[in-house]
From TrEMBL:
<dbReference type="InterPro" id="IPR008928">
    <property type="entry name" value="6-hairpin_glycosidase_sf"/>
</dbReference>
<dbReference type="GO" id="GO:0016787">
    <property type="term" value="F:hydrolase activity"/>
</dbReference>
<dbReference type="Pfam" id="PF17390">
    <property type="entry name" value="Bac_rhamnosid_C"/>
</dbReference>
<dbReference type="GO" id="GO:0005975">
    <property type="term" value="P:carbohydrate metabolic process"/>
</dbReference>
<protein>
    <submittedName>
        <fullName>Glycoside hydrolase family 78 protein</fullName>
    </submittedName>
</protein>
<keyword id="KW-0378">Hydrolase</keyword>
<dbReference type="InterPro" id="IPR035396">
    <property type="entry name" value="Bac_rhamnosid6H"/>
</dbReference>
<dbReference type="InterPro" id="IPR012341">
    <property type="entry name" value="6hp_glycosidase-like_sf"/>
</dbReference>
<feature type="signal peptide">
    <location>
        <begin position="1"/>
        <end position="22"/>
    </location>
</feature>
<feature type="domain" description="Alpha-L-rhamnosidase C-terminal">
    <location>
        <begin position="577"/>
        <end position="638"/>
    </location>
</feature>
<dbReference type="InterPro" id="IPR035398">
    <property type="entry name" value="Bac_rhamnosid_C"/>
</dbReference>
<dbReference type="Pfam" id="PF17389">
    <property type="entry name" value="Bac_rhamnosid6H"/>
</dbReference>
<keyword id="KW-0732">Signal</keyword>
<feature type="domain" description="Alpha-L-rhamnosidase six-hairpin glycosidase">
    <location>
        <begin position="250"/>
        <end position="472"/>
    </location>
</feature>
Amino acid sequence: MAVFNALFWLATFFVLLDSTSAQKCWKDTTCSGPADTSFPGPWEANIFAPASRTVSPASILSNSGDFVSKFPGNSQLSGNGSILVFDFGIEVGGLVTLDYSTTGKGSIGLAFTESKNWIGEWSDSSNGGFKGPDGAIYSSFNTSGTYSYTMPDLRLRGGFRYLTLFLVTNGTTSVNITDIKLEIGFQPTWSNLKAYQGYFHSSDELLNRIWYGGAYTLQTNAVPPNTGRQVPFVVTGWANNGTLGPGDTIIVDGAKRDRAVWPGDMGIAVPSTFVSIGDLSSVKNALQVMYNYQNPTTGAFPEAGPPLLQQGSDTYHMWTMIGTYNYLLYSNDTTFLKENWSKYLLAMKFIYGKVGPSGLLNVTGLRDWARWQTGGNGSEPNMILYRTLLTGADLSIWAGDITGLNATWQTQAASLKTAINEYCWDLSYGAFRDNATDTTLHPQDANSMSILFDVVDTSVKAESISSNLLKNWTPIGAVTPELPGNISPFISSFEIQAHFTIGQTDRALDLIRRSWGWYINNPLGSESTVIEGYLQNGTFGYRSSRGYDYDASYVSHSHGWSSGPTSALTTYVLGLSITSPAGGTWQLAPQFGDLSSAEGGFTTSLGKFQAGWILSHNGYTLSYNVPKGTTGEVILPCLSAGKFPSITIDGRHVSSGPTAQLEGSSIVLNGAGGSHTVVVS
């Protein structure tokens, strides 16, 4: 905290590189990202992003994955089938340049994998999972000499940790690898990959690593728009030359695959992007492509962006609408909103038109995140519709709509909430059923969302749901009943927020440590990012138990939809969030759990938002620094339930009254912009 206190009061606006600069970041992309971090400090040691856009391996391994030496080291291939494995130490992605000398004729094969499980002469699967193998690419040589080989742009490898080099020759040829360089392909408009616009630091180093693992995942998911996975998928090998959308950078679902815009994934990825790297340009371009490909007649959004352009998902249609709200909340980009407002209205007409006489949404666009059962009056899509209506009501105000849409959508949301609680609640179990007609399955997704989105209509129900969700837990995470045998960090991202929302801090932190802690400490993974999903037996064959044709190596080890702890730790543990566009209003409501300190911040167009708290033997100190002219609500945890503690703000004693009210186990204060210190004892 000493460093925090020294830096905390130095509130300066972050400086962006001039977007007209001639400097290039990736290929022909002009640098337009931030020049440096907004919050310098010791927490930067947790950033996984490399210091340069050009990197080399960290170490050399044997074919069995055992450590041989640091890189550079003895890197000689001798004879047909000889192999060396180069470990970059973290998830990387881009184009490799290989410098080598050779004594004869042959080829060097290059194969890639995110997990140590699949190092060898075949790359892990990225081309569609059910086609032929990705295999390898080759640098051929016809005689002895010195060579330099750079992967063609088409073969860009979006996400990997391990590079396997192997020799193909008919003779006694040997090859000496003199250098390996990787040109980083992600976050294409940033010259400084460590220029995070947010940070988080707590007394728990595991949580800190998880926060930064989510942030780094999101960086690897911000890609050049001309490097999407080719569709139709190639039969063998891989091709990343698909056009994804407008602009110079765009957020996709995964580094290795699918490399496409998926708005459902963005429901978790975008809030985490905002509090960490702060790259809203990638978000804007991803949303715009969904509007560009909206069905002009029906108003339906595609489930995924081009070149994939899958259709037929009511839930992902609504996630585009919720994503619009999130982007406006973080950016205050009203120009974007007004340009797309007529399309948004058509999208709302499309989805609300599926609400039936019962008051529930009747789902006919059946595609969803991977859950087994979809369609009908599913509780999960109805939870999402409730959130869509409420966020739409706010958007109508931000768009300057004067036709009464705010009141209309608020009323529709209230009616929907009543219907969900009437038809989907299972009184005997104490949680929501998967469908209004289903009495046996109590899904993780709908029940988590019911608390997070405030659909549940009593606190007693919320506590019952939170307790019942624990029945799905294993030592390495929560198994999701709607996808049996699988652990989904995507859906668990909603669950941890649900526990936090009702003050079950210890439960939320426990699940973060079980699931995300298990993966980031797993030596078979990337040890730097968050995984798409895995099986409850601890293997990486996510969804393989569902009968899919692809193998376990198809799973993405850098998937933004799993980055929920990054936003949750900032929003709930640190307690800092914004409640109106760009942070004109905000909230500070820390949750301590078993931690002794936490601090962090993020940036908006208004400036820096920063806070920190530290426990003492008789209370705690909370400091915050937010832009002047903003207003907020500070919610202080009581030291003893129902008892007003001793409180000072900037050295001034505060008594119970209109400006400091006891509400349950918290004290609610009016917060002002600027720098302030609150001491509670």
